[in-house]
Amino acid sequence: MDTKQFVHLHLHSQYSLLDGAIKFKPLVEKVKAYGGRAVAVTDHGAMFGAFDFATTAMKAGVMPIIGCEVYLAPGSRFDRGEANKNLDYDARYYHLVLLAQNAKGYKNLCELVSAGYLEGYYYK
Fold first, then answer.
1. Strands 63-72 and 94-99
2. H or E stretch covering 55
3. What is the H or E stretch that residue 109 is in?
4. How far is CA 120 from the centre of its chain?
5. Per-residue model confidence (pLDDT) at position 88
6. How confident is the model at residue 4 (pLDDT cuts 50, 70, 90)?
7. Cα distances (angstroms) measured from residue 99 to each of 10, 85, 86, 115
8. pLDDT of residue 111
9. 45: phi > 0 → left, psi -120 to 50 → alpha, else beta; which?
10. How far apart are CA 40 and CA 68, in angstroms?
11. Residues 49-91 pLDDT 10s
């Protein structure tokens, strides 16, 4: 593989609520038009579009990289208190982009995102 080949590893799609508007077919067409071979989608805290993205990309001959931009809380995901409310927003919450390297990574990512919805994700 050409080491100079650019691969975008952090994009938000229409499934990234209030933060993205990219639709998969135009995205894949643009990647192909620029000679790209792969692209990642990392929606905020969700993987709702992963299957649609992967199938659209593979049909076009583009390697899909499935990921997610997760929120890293300062404490436990079970903490519902307001212990960190006095800190400014940027000091309390961080984003972390996670990319699945293979099927096991995809499964692990699904489990993390599901746990975030079921056991965490209280405010943000």
1. antiparallel
2. helix 50-59
3. helix 103-119
4. 17
5. 55
6. low
7. 9, 30, 32, 17
8. 95
9. left
10. 9
11. 999 999 999 999 999 999 999 987 776 667 666 555 555 555 5
